[in-house]
Write the structure tokens for this entry.
Amino acid sequence: MSGGLDPWAALRSLTRARVALGRAGDALPTGRELEFRAAHAAARDAVHAPLDPGVLLAALPGREVLEVRSAAPDRATYLQRPDLGRQLADGTSLPATGADLAVVLADGLSPGAVQAHGPALVLALLDRLPGWSVAPVVVAHQARVALGDAVGAALGARAVVVLIGERPGLSAADSLGAYLTWDPRPGRVDAERNCVSNVRPPHGLSYAAAAGTLAALLTAARELGASGVALKDEGPALPG
Amino acid sequence: MTARRATLAGHTYEFPSLVELLAKATPARSGDVLAGCAAESAAERVAAQTVLADLPLAVFLEEQVVGYDEDDVTRLILDTHDRAAFAPVASLTVGGFRDRLLEWTADGDEAAITGLARGLTPEMVAAVSKLMRTADLVAVARRSPVVTGLRSTIGSPGRLATRLQPNHPTDDPLGVTASVLDGLLHGCGDAVIGINPATDSPARTVELLELLDAVIRRYEIPTQSCVLAHVTTTLRALDAGAPVDLVFQSVAGTQAANRAFGVTLDLLAEARAGALELGRGTVGDNVTYFETGQGSALSAGAHLGVGGRPVDQQTLEARAYGVARQFAPLLVNTVVGFIGPEYLYDGKQVLRAGLEDHFCGKLLGLPMGVDVCYTNHAEVDGDDTDTLTLLLGAAGCGFVIAVPGADDVMLHYQSLSFTDVLAARQVLGLRPAPEFEAWLARMGLLDDDGRVRALPPDAPAARALLAAAAP
């Protein structure tokens, strides 16, 4: 070996990709194989762990919290029928509030992400929106981003922010996404939303940075009366 | 048209249109349920297959799945149909066609099968695939070799090539290079060294093209590079004089879906002409590379056919091959498990789709490869990818995708690892592309039996290659 440095280690230092893993014949060595399985298992478990609303309630003391479910009755249906994850379950009733803002904490594809980061981001965001009236926080099970349109419309809110667990990767299973929609109602399309993704301190975006961006976007959306592509062009730079 | 019907166990099932018949005859998958076109029971599915088996193949030349007047993919398919090539099977039903293909396969009559390609429409091959089981899909595809070339030859019998996919979250040159070298040291990269760029910027695309070109020239590797940017970005790279080996584009099976991708047939033709003009080939002149995948039309809301009815995702996928084959591709691959569980839910559905796509592409004359892959929210794991890879190897698949440690750190999904490729080659007695295999031998990367050696880091070949990653 030249210079005393293991050249495989040198190769590994250049990228997060799984290079120079070594071989056991024409397969991976057992240790490397188990490392990969552990990463995949963590991601799989993150998808399938149910959302525990008690964790969210405990982290939002003094706030009124409502719970809703989408029309997808279970995880398997949720994964195969994104259309059902965008609709409220039959018989759902929410109070008409006329609030400026509704906030939805949605399980999405990583319930653990919203448990870990959701409440802190809600508090950081509301701190930055003095003077905004805010509807009760809604916790949503088996939810896609667009379920926020139905929730926001039912609450009569002028805007909705959906904080939702992003699809787990092998390196990160607890990344939170935030989606803002002005004048929410069923039928809104993705181009009418703004997104802040990868909220996951300390490795990803901090609560303060995400809340700052969201508050600026909400303020701009209120002036413009719209969110999405139109807002993005004039609004603050989004991370990523 | 009168409704087609079949009676099973005393219940009569009726299929008012060709679109519905094809959809209901399709083996179960989540995307067709999502689209609202799947069979509602196992019996209805077999009833549809029974009706489909009796349908004359020639019906597909008269009756459309997506309308001729409103869809340029349909026009392309029908306007370029070769009646002389179709003649040997023109009088057969779909079921009779399945039987004939299996007879030719058993007899080893490859010429009879490959000679049909231009006479078959995507809808015909989709239809017959719906009547086939796993072993049928493997056996017939194996007898339908398609060989293409640019600086290496892809698709020869007994070979399994690889796209080395050295993606990096920020396109960092050293990071990309590290993955390239790791792949080369594992005998991968013979089909293409192809990067999915983290952004679609033309300047970045040119930088990455130059990076890969430099590695290929430095070690005189008989392969080609590709940066999988949008075709309009590649056109700008061509204008800038960048070393473009292959024009890449994702394509789908309807005009509306291609529009959603920002692609027209004219754009593809223009970019292909630009790459051809560079004359960068040594063993062939195939300069395009296409990716497809079941569900892409539905995800773009562009999956409706005649009468506004949803077309099943497998038939639409075969139609994407109808687009690709007009541009003499070097490589076409379905990205079979990438799109997620709402289209292919579990290992069984991904396995079936991968084999169908490979079979349909081969019958249509395409150099098919497969990205054997999955996301973390699908019911799929490494056992499933092993199964599909070994079956594809047996089926004569031209190439597979390979990434370091099966983990794509930019696109966040799992594909095959370099060792997965070595294992499949070993089990099935398959070898790399011939020019690339000779290069591996010259570099001292092969043992006496022609297998890729596990090198100690002070081996001359390892030292030589690792020098490219020195900062």
